[in-house]
DNA sequence: GTCATGTGGTTCAAATTCGAATTACTCGGT
DNA sequence: ACCGAGTAATTCGAATTTGAACCACATGAC
């Protein structure tokens, strides 16, 4: 095994910036959602993805893939949301094993009320700190990073 | 309250890219460290920060701030590392309440062995996917994002 | 049809995380 | 010297996360 290629100064700064920003942004948004909407970030993300899906429903496994969480974690969170009436489960007609998570009217309403504050927090923490060129790099560069990791 | 400023297409792409990349990179590195070095990412980070500090030791609260974790979370992880002999605690001479986390020789050795594989994984997942200009944006832009959230 | 293999989702136990409460101490003002 | 406010770290309980084990079913080869 050869000597590893260590990170040079720029690479190190990029990595540390990415790491710190990831952690702090996540922490901040988690806090904001809990305070203002009574939702955890995973729960909010579930509602968002369901609201964006045709029919307001997505299969459990598909949803777990998009949320980048384990299947058991999703089962738990959907259970929490179901207890609060924001989501319900529906059996899949074509596959008896399958389950759809379905957004309820109340879930849609909770999301509608939570969204403005959340978007404002995302702007304040991340988006409005960057200029258009920097946003374009995040979209392209990190988009590619995400796509690659999806495939492997 | 006025209509919130929603995210336009570019902003949305940047936000989603950031979110997905954060999650997938974190997940990948967690996996890599667990498999190849038997460490969680928080644990690895603790060792890294200690190794970089003069004397290989840092006060608990200072360390918690840098790691962006709660103090109780740090107490737990340092306890885990102490059980494995990679870190020990030392009372602070000038403040009886204070505690230093100190890297042991064995801790340094474990880190030395873990680092090459980890750096390679960081390169593969993130750094080598981006060109120099993109890295510069991460370093500057996300660096600023992190600094702002630190202050508030 | 039947069997082997794979998939979808849940359950379970163990590990981790967080915040609030707690303990013990420091520090500045009086 | 003493008091009150603030700080350092830990402990505690509750909530969450994970992977492995599991069950029920789907799918394709034969």
TrEMBL record, chains A, B:
InterPro entries: HTH_MarR-typ, MarR/SlyA-like, WH-like_DNA-bd_sf, WH_DNA-bd_sf. SMART domains: HTH_MARR. Pfam families: MarR_2. Residues 1-147 form the HTH marR-type domain. Transmembrane segments: none annotated. It comes from the Bacteria. PANTHER family: MARR FAMILY REGULATORY PROTEIN, TRANSCRIPTIONAL REGULATOR, MARR FAMILY. This is MarR family transcriptional regulator. It comes from Streptomyces glaucosporus.
